[in-house]
Specification:
The complex is a heterodimer. Chain A is of the alpha+beta class. Chain A folds into two domains: about 220 residues, 3-Layer(aba) Sandwich (Rossmann fold), CATH 3.40.50.300; about 100 residues, no CATH class. Helix content of chain A is about 25%, strand content about 30%. Chain A is elongated. The two termini of chain A are about 35 Å apart. The two termini of chain B are about 30 Å apart. Chain B has eleven helices and no strands. The longest helix of chain B is centred in the first third of the chain and has 34 residues. Chain B has one domain: MetI-like fold. In chain B, helix 3 crosses helix 6 and helix 8 runs antiparallel to helix 11. The chains are: A alpha+beta, B mainly alpha. The interface between A and B is medium-sized, with 27 and 21 residues.
């Protein structure tokens, strides 16, 4: 189901949480609200859930204004960061909670709980108490407890943050498969860029209460429009540049030819470590030479910091470099983006 | 671990003895066949039999139980409501500290001051309604006044120990209002309510000062009876009565502690 966030504004005292945020979520889409802590992503999620009221602005669900509906009146369910499972109920009663609130007949609740339980693969654990489960299992219960209500929109508030790295990756893939199977609208909040790129159809990057950039994972990764997005998603080299003649940019590395000519006097050039070419092909015109300051072995590749400017790059394959080696690398024009913010 | 110096252990044992020797003495004397209790004349249960046959004690025990039960029910409901109100209101931190102090003040107020204050209050209110005449209802009201703080403090500690977001999760799952209270809040704070109620009950059972000031000439409770008999000279029967009351209190405290600790550990994990 589609969600339409229209000019939502929210302050806490004098702190700005959301500044006139507009966002359209298409039916069946899996989007991620990505940003550092305090960027307003959780506030936006809570406003969509109905747990928080915006100071101004509207939330529309399928074209219907739900801004003033309470959380318990919205066909939206949430998986909380801390899971918020009810400690006095067993797993079965936790999962059945929403159905019982809506007075679904007990005869119907039983089979639906069984279905939800097998969906998240917790069969045989329904009589346990919440504290008898591991973190990953608790997360599945929280997921089942939300999904059993067949919500039009499922909200996930950093659901993986309490889990260890391996489990997190497994659950991310599982979540993605679940979304494909069920086909609802999912909105996930995270500060983990890997998670955002892994699970979602579209990434909404937020900072300081605003949406900075949105697009598919490859769009925001490949074509960041600001220094913030480029540095928040993955690593990036930033090179201060001044406009030069005939499409060139003057930098500390000498003149370089970026993707496009600079339209302003000052700009920042941006290139990702894995886009730097070494060994350097003949055709590459943007050549930078330097001395290896640091070389870190990463198994399938090496990570290099180059003096004097500290350019960071990764070598593909195994061309071992040592500290002190004097080398030349290429900054391909196609990957040398121009940023103005 | 290093062993403590001998004199520290000695002082510790002495302090412990100060606490328990008088109580143990009463318990032993209640089984002593000697009426004056100056020497041990053998084990007997006859003081307990006399106690059982004493009509005055029957009445006093009945009054004590009625007062304790009624005042506990009232103070548990009011105290729980107060604790919930404190936890719900979006008050600033300083207001919360003030609220806490307001709760603690009755706990540390000298009971005799409270009792005197109640006497003044009831002397005025009795002109409004006969219910405020010295007697059973006045004693119950008096007990409620000090019980509320204990119930509220116990329930509040339970409430603050609950995992975050449970209210929001319930709300998100289409619950709300009374439904949410009955299905989530109440079961979760029940151990706190039970413990608070048990504490309130014990305090009422044991209370002498407020009861003595507000009971009037007719009403007799067990603590008042013990006080009165002390002026006539303490009999082994009183030892037996004291032992029974001590046993009741210990059992209730034990149960209350179980409710406070056991369940709390479960909910926290």
């Amino acid at each position: 189901m589609s969600i339409n966030v229209i000019a939502v504004h929210k302050t806490y005292g004098t702190t700005l949480a959301l500044s006139n945020v507009d966002l359209i979520v298409k039916p069946g889409e899996f989007i991620t609200l990505l940003g550092p802590s305090g960027c307003g992503k959780t506030t936006l999620l809570r406003i969509i859930a109905g747990l928080e009221r915006p100071d101004s602005g509207y939330i529309h669900l399928d074209g219907k204004d739900i801004t003033h509906d309470k959380a318990n009146q919205r066909p939206i369910n949430t998986v909380f960061q801390s899971y918020a499972l009810f400690p006095h109920l067993n797993i079965r009663d936790n999962i059945a909670f929403g159905l019982r609130s809506r007075r679904v007949p007990e005869a119907e609740i039983g089979p639906r709980v069984d279905q939800a339980v097998s969906l998240v693969r917790l069969d045989g654990m329904t009589d346990r108490r919440t504290h008898q489960l591991s973190g990953g299992q608790q997360q599945r219960v929280a997921l089942a407890r939300a999904l059993i209500n067949e919500p039009k929109v499922l909200l996930l508030d950093e659901p993986m943050s309490a889990l260890d790295a391996n489990l997190r990756v497994a659950l991310q893939i599982e979540l993605r498969a679940l979304h494909r199977r069920l086909g609802g609208t999912f909105i996930l909040v995270t500060h983990d860029q890997d998670e955002a790129l892994t699970v979602s159809d579209r990434v909404i990057v937020m900072n300081k209460g605003r949406i900075i950039q949105q697009g598919t994972p490859s769009e925001v990764y490949q074509r960041p429009t600001s220094r913030f997005v480029a540095s928040f998603l993955g690593h990036a080299n930033f090179i201060d540049a001044k406009r030069g003649s005939s499409g060139m940019a003057e930098t500390a590395y000498g003149p370089l030819r970026p993707q496009e000519p600079l339209s302003e006097e000052n700009a920042t050039l941006c290139i990702r470590p894995e886009e730097v070419l070494y060994p350097i092909p003949q055709t590459c015109t943007n050549r930078v030479s330097g001395t290896v300051r640091e070389a870190i072995y990463r198994g399938d590749h090496q990570e290099i910091w180059l003096d004097p400017q500290g350019l960071r790059f990764t070598t593909s394959g195994c061309t071992p470099l040592k500290i002190g080696d004097h080398i030349e690398v290429g900054l391909p024009t196609d990957n040398l983006r121009v940023l103005y913010a | 671990m290093r062993r403590l110096p001998l004199w520290v252990s000695f002082i510790g044992l002495f302090a412990l003895a100060l606490l328990y020797v008088p109580l143990i003495g009463v318990v032993i004397q209640s089984f002593n066949a000697s009426r004056l209790g100056l020497d041990w004349k053998g084990f007997t249960l006859k003081w307990y039999e006399q106690l059982w046959a004493n009509e005055v004690i029957h009445e006093a025990a009945w009054n004590t139980l009625v007062i304790a039960t009624v005042s506990t029910v009232i103070s548990t409901v009011l105290g729980t409501a107060l604790a919930l109100a404190f936890s719900r209101f979006p008050w600033k931190r300083r207001a919360m500290t003030t609220a806490d102090n307001v709760l603690y003040l009755p706990v540390v107020t000298p009971e005799i001051v409270m009792a005197a204050a109640l006497v003044v209050m009831f002397s005025l209110l009795r002109h409004v309604h006969a219910m405020f005449d010295f007697g059973l209802p006045a004693v119950i009201i008096g007990h409620v006044t000090f019980q509320i703080s204990f119930v509220t403090l116990t329930v509040r500690s339970r409430l603050s120990g609950l995992p975050a977001n449970l209210d929001e999760a319930a709300c998100d799952l289409y619950s709300g209002g009374w439904n949410l209270f009955r299905r989530v809040t109440l079961p979760l704070i029940m151990p706190g309510i039970t413990a608070g109620a048990l504490l309130a009950f014990i305090l009422s059972l044991d209370d002498f000062v407020i009861t003595y000031f507000t009971a009037g000439p007719q009403l007799m409770t067990l603590p008042v009876y013990i006080y009165g008999s002390q002026r006539r000279g303490i009999t082994p029967e009183i030892h037996a009565l004291s032992t029974v009351m001590l046993l009741c209190t210990v059992v209730l405290v034990f149960v209350a502690m179980r409710f406070l600790q056991d369940r709390k550990g479960k909910a926290a994990s």
